[in-house]
Amino acid sequence: MNSLFAGHDRGGTSLLLRGAPGVGKTALLDAAAVRAADVGMRVLRASGVEFEAEMNFSALHQMLWPLRRHADRLAGHHRDVLDRIFGLAPGLSPDPLAASTAVLALLGEVTVERPLLMIADDMSWIDRASATALGFVVRRISDDPVVFLAAARTGTEGLWRQLRLPVHEIGPLAAQSAAELLDARWPGLTPTVRRRLLAEAAGNPLVLRELPAALSSRQRSGRDPLPALLPLFGRLEAVFASAVERLPAPTRTVLLVLRCTPPPTWPRFGRPRRIPRASTTSPWRSRRTW
User: Which residues, including other chains, have CB under 8 Å from residue 29's CB and lie 6 or more apart?
Assistant: First the structure.
């Protein structure tokens, strides 16, 4: 992260953080915003959300709203376009090129004062009009003191893929770090419960923080047994349910069937018989008998 800001006053830099839900992308964006403010940069931020994904320029409105008064310094045609994006003037939604060039002009005006960090979180939910304008800008900031930092979930689609931004994959925590996070957030877990939670979380920071909250105090202390399937709770349910909803319908059906099907009780089937070695002269060499 420090390397992003090393030359922030010389030329444009961009980076995409990609990882699974709950792995800590937004926390890294928060840290970047604090770091940028500490070195004197202006921070503009937008976060994509599903219910605004069909609203033209909603993400751009969120990101650029703090700059709305700077638009008065621009040429009239750029100012008129930005006023329509901000909802300050009547008229049709501006066309992509007019919107993009107006945004580029606005950013060029404000970077004269100080360098700029632009943050776009949850890129897959950013509306198409905003994504187009941001892509236009990112491709033209190589000589400007602008850092563009974005985050997206692994496996999601969107116009951001066409930008070919440098990507940094955010993986799960290492075993030691995961244990330290769980112990700091939930001290006093019994060893059996602690091992189960670490195994279920698989290094995901959000799961490590939130999953124990779904258990009762008696379960966390080991006085009551843990359920076969640990329940989702609060933020976990919201984060992972939305990930499931994006899957194709056949995939969701398979997951539902698997969830509703009890695991097999292997002892009732008996142990499989030894697989005999196939005869080298038999025409059924690939056949196995159970």
Answer: 17, 45, 119, 121, 149, 151
> Distance between CA 154 and CA 21 in Å, rounded?
8
DSSP-based helix, strand, coil % in the chain, nearest 5: 50, 10, 40
Question: Which residues have C-beta within 8 Å of that of residue 156, sequence separation ≥ 6?
Answer: 123, 124, 246
> Over 70: is that where the pLDDT of 2 sits?
no
**With pLDDT > 70 as the criterion, what percentage of the chain qualifies?**
77
The pLDDT of residue 268 is: 42
Angstrom distance (rounded) from CA 266 to CA 154:
35
| CA distance linking residue 128 with residue 146, whole number of Å | 22
**pLDDT tier, 142 (very low <50, low <70, confident <90, very high otherwise):** confident
The CATH homologous superfamily to which domain 2-170 belongs is P-loop containing nucleotide triphosphate hydrolases (3.40.50.300)
Beta strands 116-121 and 146-153: pairing type?
parallel
Q: Summarize pLDDT for 175-189 with one digit per residue, the tens.
A: 999 999 999 999 989
> Cα(117)–Cα(44) distance, rounded to whole angstroms?
6
- Alpha-carbon distance of 17 to 183, in angstroms, equals 27
**How far are the Cα atoms of 61, 72, 106, 163 from residue 81, in angstroms, in the given order?**
12, 12, 11, 24
pLDDT in tens, 77-119: 999 999 999 998 888 889 999 999 999 999 999 999 999 999 9
| Domain spans in the chain, listed from the N-terminal domain onward | 2-170, 175-260
* Owner of token pair 């909250």: 213
